[in-house]
Each structure stands twice: as structure tokens, then as C-alpha cells.
Amino acid sequence: VRAVQCSFCGTAAFYRREYEGVSLCQKCFKRSIEDKVRFTISKHKMLSPRDHIAVAVSGGKDSLSLLSILSKLKTKFPLSKLTAITIDEGIQGYRDEAISLAKATAESLNIEHRIFSFRELFQVTLDKIVKRQTKLAPCSYCGVLRRRALEKAARTIGAGKIASGHNLDDEVQTALLNILHGGVERLVRTGPVLVDPEQRFIPRVKPLCGLYEREIALYGYLTGIEFQRTPCPHRNRALRNDVRDVLNALEEKHPGLKYTAYSSKLKLSDLLGDRKIHLNSCKICGEWTGRDLCEVCKILVQNQKLECLPREA
Ligand code: SF4
Ligand SMILES: [Zn+2]
Ligand SMILES: [Zn+2]
């Protein structure tokens, strides 16, 4: 039996990419992943040659692959600068490993690595917040605070862009979750690039949004990137997990479905998403928000109230 050949170079293939109907050898697979990232960056005009990019590095496969791919692309843009940023949410027994992996990868790529913690930025850890506040899932508190932490971190180091490792699966899941939760505003407002026309926030870009999660894992494995495998103890994304399972089952039967779902979402954003949003400055911290108090201050105020309550015996 003849081995399956790589559709590009004719050597032995090791992977079949169903959604494009091609087989790939390891070398062509790696190159195709890097090409896809380059394509996404230029298609959505994510980066400029002189950008200082704060790369959000959690220590997982996506963010570490992103850091490694961006450092390769950087060789063509000598005036650009990358800084790896890890946010330490204060999750006992989980973040430490991730931080050391992020540090090691950044070091091996010769990229400066900075750590910013919830404790130093907000004077409280995520562990404490989720112990006291149970109204929402831990990831909701974490997400709000982490977004702010990244913004603060990027401002502190003088970065002009924030890049994160969100992949195609994340993006399609989020879009579907927004529909299921009734978050239509959010559905059309989010996308591969988030730029505030009034420059109140640092632009955010997602260079991996065109890549399948499992292909990033494969890329990470082939390039020898060591990433964290232990899941976060607060991870409780019941609905997201169900959505992921449904999408994976559909993709299995109909290869390419995640791509078409995502491009429909992008078209919707193009059609509806270009509205100006009126924002006030938060009465406590002064950051921009649609209400009187920003989401971060709401969490922190609630946390302080609960902290002052007498403990039950
Ligand atoms: S799983 Fe949830 S709580 Fe844990 S780090 Fe991620 S967003 Fe935060
Ligand atoms: Zn090949
Ligand atoms: Zn505030």
C-alpha cells in the first residue's frame, strides 16, 4: 500500500485536513499554520510594522503558539516589539505552573516577559472573589477582571496593541453562546479586531482566530512547545462545553462548518457592528463604561461589602 502523500511536496503525509481536502507532511503543516496566521493578520489589518504588541500569554497551547508564531513573523518587522504578559489571577495550585511555562517559552524566544497580578492591581485574588461571590460563574468574574488587567498592563508597558490566542473554536463557541444567552449586541461587536474609534481602549487583535483548536495543539506538539495541561479548578463552563461538543460533532460530519459559521458571524458584524457606543467614565475608577459603575468596580465593591460581613460560624 502506498503511503498517502503530502498534497504540496509529495513526501509522506501525516495529517489529513478534511475541511480543505488536503493531506500534509509535518513541514508543510507547520508552514500552513504560520501562513494562515499571516493571512489573518493582513486580512484584518491587525498589526503595523512599528507596533509594540502586548501578547497575552496564559501558558496554554494557544497563547504560547501565538507567541512563538509572532516571534517568527517579527524577524520581518525589525521595528516592531513583542512583550509577553501573563496575568496572575491568584488561583492556587494552578497559575504557578502556567507562569513558569510562559516564562520559559518567552525566554527561549528572547522576548521580555512581565507578570501582573490581580492582587497587585485589584488588591484581591480570584480565589477570594469566587469564595465570596457566587452569583455568577467564576469565569465571568475572571474574564471581566482579566480584560481590565490586560489593559492596565499594556498601558504600563506602553504597548499599542494587545494580542490574544483566541482560536476559531473559541470564537464560534462565543458567537453561539451570545445567541443562546441573548447577547446580540456582544455578538456583533466582538470580532478578530476590536478598535475603539475614540481610542479609549488599546486595540485588541486575535491572530489565531482562523485556526482550529486541534490544529494549534498539533502545531504546539510538533514545535515542541511545552504548555499547561492541568485545567483551572474554577473552570465551570457547562454550557460552553455543550456548545463545544455540538460544534465538534457537526464539524466531524460536515468539515469546514466552523469556518462558515465564523464567516457568517463576521458578515453580521460588518452589517450591524459599526455603531458608535456612548460611554461614561466610571464614578469610582474613571474607566470607560456604559453605566455609572464599570463591571470591575461592581465586582470589587461587592467584594468589599462581603468582606465586612461577619463570618458565619
Ligand atoms: S477557567 Fe475561568 S476562572 Fe479559570 S482562568 Fe479561565 S476564565 Fe479564569
Ligand atoms: Zn509537504
Ligand atoms: Zn470602575
SSE map:
Layout: E1 15-17, E2 22-24, H1 26-43, E3 52-56, H2 61-74, E4 81-88, H3 95-108, E5 112-117, H4 118-122, H5 126-132, H6 138-157, E6 161-163, H7 168-181, H8 184-189, E7 193-194, E8 204-205, H9 213-222, H10 238-253, H11 257-272, E9 280-281, E10 288-289, H12 295-308
Parallel strand pairs: 3-4, 3-6, 4-5, 6-8
Antiparallel strand pairs: 1-2, 7-8, 9-10
Bound molecules: iron/sulfur cluster and zinc ion (2 copies).
Describe, in plain words, how this protein is organized in 3D.
The protein is an alpha/beta fold. The chain contains 12 helices and 10 strands. It has helices at residues 26-43, 61-74, 95-108, 118-122, 126-132, 138-157, 168-181, 184-189, 213-222, 238-253, 257-272, 295-308, and strands spanning 15-17, 22-24, 52-56, 81-88, 112-117, 161-163, 193-194, 204-205, 280-281, 288-289. A 6-stranded mixed sheet has the order 5-4-3-6-8-7. It has a two-stranded antiparallel sheet with strand order 1-2. Strand 3 (52-56), helix 2 and strand 4 form a beta-alpha-beta unit. Helix 2 (61-74) packs across helix 9 and helix 7 (168-181) packs across helix 11 (257-272). The N and C termini lie far apart (72 Å). The model has no long low-confidence stretch (mean pLDDT 91). The structure holds iron/sulfur cluster (SF4) and zinc ion (2 copies). Residues 89, 138-139, 142-143, 232, 234-235 line the site of iron/sulfur cluster.
